[in-house]
Amino acid sequence: MPVEFSDTDGGDTRGASAKAPPPALRVRTHRGYGGNRVPLVAAPARTATLPAGGTADTEAGGPPPRVVTTRHPWRWVAAAGIAVLLAMAASALITNPAWEWEVVGEYLFAPSVLRAVVFTLELTALGIVFGFLLGTVLALMRLSGNPLLGSVAWGYIALFRSVPLILQLLFWYNLALLYPRISFGVPFGPAFFDIGTMDLIGPVTAAALGLALHQAAYAAEIVRAGLLSVDRGQREAAAALGIPRTRQLFRIVLPQAMRSIVPTAGNEIIGLVKGTSVVYIMALPELFYQVQVIYNRNGRVIALLLVATIWYLVMTSVMSVAQHYVERYYGRGRG
Q: Is the Cβ–Cβ distance between 21 and 60 less than 8 Å?
């Protein structure tokens, strides 16, 4: 059995028949990103000095390296502190009777509240659909080589992004003060028929119109940024193959641009769900207006505000999950 003598032992190593295996290594690991352990090789462990005539109980390959996990005590301290804060917040929500959870449960699924939730979703859908349709047209106008189209689109975006949404809604709601009747006919020529502005643009139409026109200004910049993110060589290659420009846009450019459009568009949709609460000034029965009506009648202000908070949280959470799957769909093949 090979024997290794320490250099402080004073023994003569010239008669040793073979050398001992190299000293064992202590391996320390660090948990990196993604949960992978990254080995960190430490200094060789000191070998014990064998007395004369002693034997080394080791195998030919030497002892296996010992893995030592890096400890992070401050992570546990931070986690414990956050857990205590969460427990305190939960206790404050549950034990404080002023929250009136029984009233929240009573009105959470009340028919009037459910109708208000549906109306809120309808306003959101109208604003998003027509807003992004108009926004796509504005984005294409800005990207066109026609200076007039580009200037008109730029002016529209600058105007509607500068005026607050509540002012736009009030403007459309009171449009009859400017134009009592709206005529249809030849521009600068005879009118075929006209109709009263109040009959044509009611409160719901004014709300949907204001939301859509306001959203179109932001949607135009989102779509334009997505289109610009697609490499120009894609369009050049499609043109070289003789593919029509409309087909280039809808079959080649837009599917790739959606990777950049969807995340920002999802944020805009979620923001518009909450932005519909502004139409309460038009006395429309959306969610925020409806809970105001109820708590003005029974005085349960905090409980009814909690009802609205829960429903807004549910709607935005569902939309966030849908956004995740849409992003994953358009992100196929990336990387």
A: yes
